[in-house]
Design goal:
Layout (H helix, E strand, L loop, with lengths): L21 H5 L4 E4 L9 E4 L10 E6 L2 E6 L6 E5 L3 E5 L6 E4 L3 E17 L6 E16 L2 E17 L9 E15 L2 E10 L5 E8 L25 E3 L9 E3 L3 E2 L4 H4 L1 E2 L1 E4 L4
Antiparallel strand pairs: 1-2, 3-4, 5-18, 6-13, 7-12, 7-14, 8-11, 8-13, 8-18, 9-10, 9-12, 10-15, 13-17, 14-16
Length: 275
């Protein structure tokens, strides 16, 4: 930033260096600034052309005679989406759960995390294969519709023949899928899981769900119950099973009332990194 005079004098320049002439009047002016409070580096700076620099998460903008300075909010690297007392539930292939997230001010995540309970046979005559797929996506509100933004999926597969070890595929296990997002505002998380096995009597996979409210929601007081009644706008399950995350979902297509399935949901988290 330099300081210049709007009026530019054009009269002749004096040769007497002890006097202030037009060239001196029109020359750049040196400025000196002093910083106080929470500072780093030198607490004074100056010159004939001052530069303003935006640091991390600081944005500068100039419009006419106005300097704008804005700062991004602190970024969160973890959010528990559905938590509490847990239970197991058989995997509902193609059932899509939707969870409204708290108003987000600076969320950076690279994965969605869920949990599965796995039990399987290690009998010497057992032979089977297992496939487990997970899907997650962030939706935003457009009128009376949720629209899909970023999404991701992952797939797990393993086979057991004879009595080879099942140690890495037993008990309660974490599963995840990539979902890269830097989000601000209101979002809904869509989540579903699908599984398939051969010789299904040899392996059982269940998902870990929150059991805080293992009762049905009957809708609003003094109002005829409807399956699309929702405790919180956009919470519940998609009205039809699906093999992929829909690009858009109407709020009327989200069911919450009348079924325990709609009230409980997988225990989930959005996270950035592993530690």
């Amino acid at each position: 930033m330099s300081v210049q005079h709007v009026k530019n004098l054009t009269m002749g320049q004096t040769t007497d260096t002890t006097l202030v002439g037009p060239n001196d009047w029109n020359s750049a002016h040196s400025q000196l600034y002093t910083l106080t409070g929470n500072t780093t580096g030198n607490n004074t700076f100056g010159g004939t052309d001052i530069q303003f620099s935006g640091g991390n998460n600081i944005t500068l903008s100039g419009t006419g005679v106005t300097l704008g300075i804005s700062a991004a909010g602190g970024r969160a690297n973890y959010i528990a989406v559905n938590s509490g007392s847990f239970a197991t539930q058989s995997i509902q292939n193609g059932s899509l759960w939707l969870f409204p997230l708290n108003n987000i001010d600076g969320l950076i995540v690279d994965r969605c995390i869920a949990f599965a309970s796995i039990s399987q046979s290690s009998s010497s005559n057992s032979s089977y294969s297992v496939n487990l797929s997970m899907y997650a996506g962030l939706y935003s509100k457009t009128g009376s519709t949720l629209s899909l933004g970023t999404s991701g999926s992952s797939s797990y597969a393993w086979s057991i023949t004879s009595n080879n070890t099942t140690a890495n595929q037993a008990g309660i296990r974490g599963i995840s899928c990539p979902i890269s997002a830097t989000a601000d505002g209101q979002y809904w998380l869509g989540f579903m899981v699908r599984s398939s096995t051969t010789n299904t009597n040899w392996a059982t996979i269940e998902q870990i769900v929150a059991s805080n409210l293992a009762s049905t929601f009957s809708g609003w007081l003094n109002v005829t119950s409807s399956v699309s009644n929702q405790m919180i706008l956009g919470s519940g399950t998609y009205s039809v099973t699906t093999s992929a995350l829909p690009g858009s979902i109407g709020f009327s297509e989200i069911h919450h009332a009348g079924s325990v399935l709609n009230n409980v949901g997988p225990i989930l988290a959005l996270q950035n990194g592993t530690a």
